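Changelog excerpt: complex records now keep ligands as SMILES alongside chain sequences, and the structure block spans every component. Example after the change:
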Amino acid sequence: MTGKKTKGSQDITPEKKVEMLEQMIVIRHFEQKVEQMFMQGKIHGTMHLCTGQEATAVGAIGALEAKDKITSTHRGHGHCIAKGSDIGRMLAELLAKETGYCKGKGGSMHIADLDLGNLGANGIVAGGHPLATGAALTSKMKKLGYVVICFFGDGASNEGSFHESLNLAAVWDLPVIFFCENNEYAMSGPIKEMINIEHISQRASSYGMPGVTINGSDVLEVYEATKEAAERARSGQGPTLIEAKTYRFKGHSRADARKYRTREEEKEWITKKDPIALFKKSLIDEGVLSEEKAQAIEDQVQSFVEKAQGFAENSPEPSPESLQEDVYA
Amino acid sequence: MTGKKTKGSQDITPEKKVEMLEQMIVIRHFEQKVEQMFMQGKIHGTMHLCTGQEATAVGAIGALEAKDKITSTHRGHGHCIAKGSDIGRMLAELLAKETGYCKGKGGSMHIADLDLGNLGANGIVAGGHPLATGAALTSKMKKLGYVVICFFGDGASNEGSFHESLNLAAVWDLPVIFFCENNEYAMSGPIKEMINIEHISQRASSYGMPGVTINGSDVLEVYEATKEAAERARSGQGPTLIEAKTYRFKGHSRADARKYRTREEEKEWITKKDPIALFKKSLIDEGVLSEEKAQAIEDQVQSFVEKAQGFAENSPEPSPESLQEDVYA
Amino acid sequence: MREITYAESVREAMSQVMRADEDVFILGEDIGIYGGAFGVTNGMLDEFGPERVRTTPISEAAITGCAIGAAMTGMRPILELQFSDFITIATDQIVNQAAKLRYMYGGKASVPVVIRTPAGSGAGLAAQHSQSLEAWMAHIPGLKVIQPSTPSDAKGLLKAAIEDNNPVMFYEHKLLYGMKGDVAEDSYTIPIGVADVKKEGTDLTVVATSIMVHKTLEAAEELGKENIHIEVIDPRTLVPLDEETIIKSVLKTRRALVVTEAVKRGGYGAEIASMIGESEAFDFLDAPVSRLGGVDTPMPYNPTLEKMAVPQVGDIVQKVREMLNRA
Amino acid sequence: MREITYAESVREAMSQVMRADEDVFILGEDIGIYGGAFGVTNGMLDEFGPERVRTTPISEAAITGCAIGAAMTGMRPILELQFSDFITIATDQIVNQAAKLRYMYGGKASVPVVIRTPAGSGAGLAAQHSQSLEAWMAHIPGLKVIQPSTPSDAKGLLKAAIEDNNPVMFYEHKLLYGMKGDVAEDSYTIPIGVADVKKEGTDLTVVATSIMVHKTLEAAEELGKENIHIEVIDPRTLVPLDEETIIKSVLKTRRALVVTEAVKRGGYGAEIASMIGESEAFDFLDAPVSRLGGVDTPMPYNPTLEKMAVPQVGDIVQKVREMLNRA
Ligand SMILES: Cc1ncc(C[n+]2csc(CCOP(=O)(O)OP(=O)(O)O)c2C)c(N)n1
Ligand SMILES: Cc1ncc(C[n+]2csc(CCOP(=O)(O)OP(=O)(O)O)c2C)c(N)n1
Ligand SMILES: [Mg+2]
Ligand SMILES: [Mg+2]
């Protein structure tokens, strides 16, 4: 049930690895920027940062082909970025600007980029499972050959739609990967108290599909597991449930005193299982990356994010007329 | 996962065994009567007969104490009878009479007898799972010591509320038994095509509760498995999932050409796995019952059912004023 | 033209579109060999095969969302929900997903899905299988809502629904399935959003939906004998609602009655009545805009009570008389 | 008396009842140590412990049904559904089970459950977290529906809801949680089904619900400066609806406007407007019974658009002026 540690997959070139690291850093900086702008009162509503979970988004989506699709969650910035979305337009969406991905109408919880195969974030926990299943059905019926990753959290695995969708995908052998980012908490609910089993991946057995638990702080392990599941899906062998153990370094959403977990626990994760630090170190150890190059990436990303902020802040507000546009096709 | 064959449990007296057989025969005759009256146009709406499934209702409920509760399904006549309901009032309900269990307002799919601990049939597939869980929560919170059986069909195991309820009952260690009457079909859907696993009981493992598959044609095996689960529940060890393999001898509801299964398959079950024939034979073989006594029971039951019919048919219609009564407490 | 039933007409609409468009398929519980709970898809499995007539597990949330996800990605699914009461299990997918995706995504997705589902009472199926909850869906921006009352309307409107690029709720009535009527053999559409004047009249406008159209037409016959001539309007689609046709009629008759099977309180009849009351017709009204609808109870099993729970021909006749006898 | 917030007042009502009645308990997502998404249950875990302040998995159907099943068997649960949009996942349990059990069982069960849930827009949470769907539940026989607009109403009505033997939907408004008002310290009830005249007036009756009560009171101030005196009625409970108080007011003012945040089309405003139009007030109306409600779109994220999507003070002022300038 629990996946083996894979170190450095053969089919990942050094360039790809560095690219993955870079993506992870973009996500980290993007989330920092979002938090900062939120604190400054520039962003309203709410936000769910994926800081600490960069390896799941990047590793999983890194294993996909361009034509493949994803459905995302309320904690979806990382998925968007890994799927190739423009962070300027993402930030513009958070600022509710016309140039945002949703023309300012969706906000953080609803960013979608259908052209890139991102079928959208979802404000409803486990709301994406049936949709991902349907997108996979299209792939199968139209023989389009694409695979769908359905991202969701540990908490979502207790929703009925999780159960129904996994079963449906299994009996119809649909090319979908149910990817659980188990960050140990659903808002304040410790997953240990919300289920009576050790691994969410064990639930795969209820549907006759493979289930695996992996280290979500190890981007290459995530990549490997997803690659395998994607191959299985693409070759008509149906869905897989992947559970990646990870941790969100920040609170659930904007105001969260994090009373449900200890500062020690947080420190443990942040100092020992930061996926970016770990990956960076391993690339440096491997000789794929130098300290200087790493720093250069950081700097580059920083200015990349600043530029995105500039774009977003200088973008226009949506017009009042747009209120009633796009309700119907 | 699959339960062992138990033959003749120690704690069942011969009297109790004969009583169980008698109950099964009452159910069989009752369903025959319902079908007959339906064909005669005396009953309207629809009906879901449990003919062939008598051992699950009688075996499971036979293992309960009087204070224990059940939730039932659209195919619930057997559960009602096993829980001790008056068949006259049941028939009166099917005839939509004022003396019926629901004053003629509920019909076959909604018979309830709260005084006896029957929390009611349910027209919504898997609608009873959350309710049973809640009833079990009451037992736990008020320390009432009762156990709840939640009956449901194979098809119901694909509803989200099945999943959510089993999980909730498991994490809260509630005294509830999820009892699946797997009769191989959900209306026309063969369970084999609706799930990708062999036994529905395997799904228990998703919730960290015991799951067992038993022979639903063997009333004593049903009794044993339920007794064990009830003891576990009563002693605070939480829920169990029991799957009893059974078969409905009749169609799904009033008009069903049964194109989804073969006449051979039906014959196989009816001739070889009729729970009543099997139990009767084993009691006779054991020397607990004589052929004459068996015949006497049949005759007695027949006149018992005729009497019930008389009561029901001679009962008054509900008054027009009753239409708007009992909406609010 | 030939006479076919409402159920046959629904089937014919689906079959004709499926022959012409590979992307259209049906999914639902028991729709294959069983032909659906009401026989609507009878024989379609044979013609189209199990890939395009997909029998599903009993998982209303997943199958609805699956249809929506398929619609977002290029298919045009038709979902049969076995009873409209079961929408309650798929509500999130319909209301929070299908209806809103396009708007939330800034106009980027379209969700061409049709959800067909039988509603209404009269079959002795009691409280959990007899509801008329179309008002819920008509309250949700992003959905279209259709409620055909005749075989011919059902066929043309279903085709229009399938061709529409938006999620469409298509409410059939279980007591109408067996009703026969003239239906053209060719494939045709009836535009969504156009009411139909089922009978012209001068004395009072009755706006009636679904099966109430027929009850009102019966009432009209009786009233005709008393020389009372009511106009009977069938909106056919609740969203968008053809307000113009209704208002024009009321301007002519100066009296309006709205008849729905759905529970009166909070039903869509309230929307239609309020809309009339707010319109330019207000100044010409000779009587209050009135409503007949279901009583405030769950649907009872007993057939006598069940009939009493929703408007009957006699109720309509009496109400019209009352409204005309007013001042 | 002292001033406390709406959220504190809801908490106080629950705490006082829980101190007095062992059978009352709360369940919901994150209601324990987190205090609920809006902090309403803050501190209750400490006082009542995890048995009576039960944090649940994210399983809206099961936790709702669990509350209903517990209510049927002798408990008096209060369920907090984190956002009222998530009712869509528990709809079957509320509508097909809680609302109907008693009737289906011929009067034998009672279901004393309260479902508290925050509704409404204004917090920048977009389409899936901002809906006002109370009209749905008000359409369902067997449910009671409450929508308090002030801290003091919230406290008294919540106590009445908990003591009621029927399933009660209790809609809170997320923007009202922080609003302060005078609230008596003792435990008290406000009877369900009694409207409150929030401001007396002579020129026009505005029936407003939830947060629209406050917007209307603001509008009343502005209009007062123009010597226009509107009467502001807060029904407080939608089911049962205090029709008498509303009709009496309209008989006096001869003009009625209904203001809801919910989408106008098919909203409960239509019920109230139709009810007025059907009543004896009809003959005295000097203007059409009008409605203001949400526009026909999912709720947008952009704050400017979000405000435009629901009635604002200016809209109410303008509408009242229009209605008074009529003929
Ligand atoms: C159906 C539904 N229930 C509850 C919520 C409120 N909510 C938003 S996120 C969240 C926690 C989700 O936990 P998990 O699935 O583990 O994802 P994470 O936030 O940890 O990434 C909750 C309860 C919601 N948005 N939708
Ligand atoms: C939520 C819901 N979906 C569908 C139905 C229609 N329906 C009634 S019984 C049934 C089959 C149920 O199958 P199963 O659970 O195996 O029980 P069985 O009839 O075999 O006893 C279906 C689909 C329903 N009543 N409720
Ligand atoms: Mg989590
Ligand atoms: Mg079955």
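The CA atoms of residues 5 and 180 of chain C lie 4 Å apart. Chain C is about 40% helix and 20% strand.
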